[in-house]
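Minutes, project check-in

Agenda point 3 was the complex the collaborators sent over. CS summarized: three entities, 988 residues total, and the question is how they sit relative to each other. Sequences were read into the notes so everyone works from the same version.
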Amino acid sequence: MNLHANQDGLRARVVNASMTAAPASPVPTKPSATVKRARPPALRYLVLPGQIVSVAVLVVPLLVALYMSFTDWTPTRGSLFNASFIGLDNYSDLLIYDSRFVEAVVRTILISVVCLALEFTIGLGLAVLFLREFRGKAVFFSALLTPMMILPVVVGYTFWMLFQSNGPLNQIIALFVGGAATPEWFRSAPLAVVTVIVTEVWHWTPLFFLILLSGLNAVPENPVRAAIILGASPRQVFWRVILPMLKPVIVVAFVIRAMEVIKLFDEVFMLTRGGPGSSTETISLYIYKLAFNDFQLAYGAAAAFIVLIGTLVLINLMLLPIREQLLKERR
Amino acid sequence: MTAPKLQLVDLKKEFSDGSVAAVDGIDLTVAGGETVALLGPSGCGKSTTLNMIVGLEAPSSGDILIDGRSVIDIPAGRRDVGLVFQDYAVFTSMSVRENLAFGLKVRRVKKPAIVRAVGEVAELLGLTGILDASARDLGGSELQRVAIGRTLVTRPSILLLDEPLSNLEAAARLAMRKELRRLQKEIGLTIIYVTHDQIEALSLADRIAVMNAGKIKQVEKASLICQQPDNLFVAGFMGSPPMNLLRGKLVRNGAGLAFAKDGFSFDLPSGTTPGEGHERLPAVLGVRPEDIRLASTGEGLMAARVVLVEPRGSDAVLTVESGPQTMKVIVPSLGRPEEGAEVGLSIDPSSLVLFSGESDRRLPLFAEDMS
Amino acid sequence: MPARPLTPIMAILLVVALVVTLFPVFWIVMTAIKPPTDWNAAPAIWVPANPTLVNFRTLFDPNAIREYGVGGVSQSATASVFGSILASVVSTFFSILIGLFAAIGLSRYAGGSKVTPLIILSGRMFPPAAIAVPFVIIFSATNIIDTYGGLIAIYVAATLPFSTWMLKSFVDDLPREIEEAEMIDGRSRLMAHVTVTVPLVRGGLFATALFIFILNWSEFMFALVLSYGRISTIPVQLAKYVTATAGTLYGVQAALAVLAMIPLVLAGFAIQSHLARGMTFGAIKR
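CS then shared the predicted structure for the full assembly.
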């Protein structure tokens, strides 16, 4: 008797529950409720074309290059598969015996460091300037951003023109030191390096300017006000409060540019072709020479992978200051 | 006679486009060691006033005196005034210790003095355990203590707070209230804070300055302001629920005066002299919800019907209608009537407040009120 | 706090910055309109007395070029202009198309693994000169070397991470509920995205497209390495004019440079508000 009653009661409760349960679809009472439903895997295929292209056109050649770097292949040997496997010989040759490679690496790093330092400093200065109010600000802003929108090849060409011995730069210098003392920019190794640095800094300072200005505008007002109330001078507020808040922005800007400046090719190609001699030869230029002048393809591939690994390590080091913040955001 | 700690003299802040003034001529005197709340709805000018006291904004006219000296020309960092923001605005790139030390570091105080001061304040606010924690990792009430501590390290004589309790949960609010009271006693701080929340004002302040539309409507001791509102705005603002306000007229009723509204008439107690009053003066009668009782017999009995019951735990707020008149009544929860019930309302005449319908000011109801 | 005005020193610095920024552009434009007699003047002429557009015409006139022909440079620039337009536009189109759907897929469905940004970043760290090598090999073997198809394929693949990542940041900004509403009304998921998501990101789509276009238009290395006579792009042509002639073709070179610059400067202005997002691959939004 009791059992039946219980069962009926149970059944009644189950029936009631199912009748009053919220319908499984269509009208969502809370949007978040529908999102938590399992997403149909069907539309994962959207990513597929992208993945196919990436694999076919990027990953496959990369793997080919990787394999190649462990062989001694040159085109004269016919098919790639005829080449003999020599393990890490290419790599060790590059790092230990190839002084030109090592020089190219050191040179590229030095040029990169100088360029980044200059771009950051000038960019920051401009950004601070733009925190003020003045007429025509928008026009100035657009104008100052122009350099980074110009093709690297054209930038290289332009500065090649400007640094010509009879070019405008030397004419201006002549006003100060007299016509005979004007430098021959492309004849002297250190001067040629300077032309590369000037070109690169002109080209990309606007990016630092843009990023830093965005960052500065995003700094919250109240901590700044609090610092002022606590007695800080404007300079102290800038260095102690504002700049630390810009750290993530600054690091991102540096990382982005570092990755690109290490691969410096187009501008140098147009300016000096790596010369005089090999005094402005960046890593990319050296690899280009190895691959397309000397046809040392396997060797060049190995050099490229060394650069890839080196850059990866470098970038990770550069990201250390904001590692904590990045991890927090990923959660 | 020593000068008061803070004096605001006809302080005004106008917008450059000449529209309504944010602060429209306020006068306020704050004694040392007092806690004063600036209470008012959004946009009443209380935050602007705070900004002017600390120096973030310059007044359009008027003066601000601290210890008797005008500080209008003294920049924000040097007025001996500290400000704690509503969002605390702690320096997230620094540790708690560095936050606390900031005010002294930028004044180039020597390290040992900084260490000592930071230690004292940390002890005072219970921050000693987290001195080396990064400001990014702190919770709400910890952040607030850091924000307060950061200001205290520079030993201001006046501490300003913007909505100090609004971002805290109930338990934390209680704790912070105790904390601020203790600070005031131990250091003798003068505290001025801004809030839109009456409870926050009533629970923490010695005196409350009620503000609206850029003006101070009334400054009064916290314990008295609900009982003795000076004008209609304060009467209708303070209290939860606020005073019932009935608009009508004063008329002669035999020998005495009566308050008349839409055929409803209430004899004012004998001996009432409304001061400014004459017959047919537009007037507003104020009755506090807690001063209306449900009764079946008694003086001033009114018939009414309950249209809404809002329970509040130990008591309940009834919305009653008596003829065209709607009022709110507070009754104990136990034995409260249902919605739709017919009840009788009894009002103690001595609890009545009368306001002039023209000037909005309170009219003295009894001879003793005239001062 | 209201912003303060510039101090006199600041104003001077600003003007100096402006001059330094715009002078090179000014110089190139002036050189482009110099008549041939002014080209090799020493010291170089700043503003030609008789500006002319003849250089631009010379660019497209094979006979005129031949007259200057030094070291085998007798090509007019027509082919390269055509090539640049073709390669840039087509590859931008496909990059955006594929990238858009990948972006929607990543944003709405796959959540994006933590490895993805790392992969994209590492892709940018590899020196192009080296990765060009396997391409040369593979393309030669499959006979698509020196064809626009091959070049376009590379451009699409190279810019795909960018377009995906940038578009993803735009799609992420849209609340999911908008599409969900469409889907509930009975549309298939794909159609919901096409009719709802795509129009809503069209601002970001436009900006990304222009940004990718800028990248493709500027690309030099791959075009250089993969072109053997049948295909050409403007950067390659410019390099040929410069390196092969050792400077005798100043005006014509400059004219080509100016032509190359114009679309980019225009595109740059059009997407100025999105530049921060684009240049940092979506890391920083304005």
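Noted in discussion: Residues 79-233+270-279 of chain C form a domain with the MetI-like fold fold (CATH 1.10.3720.10).
Follow-up: revisit at the next meeting once the mutant set is ready.
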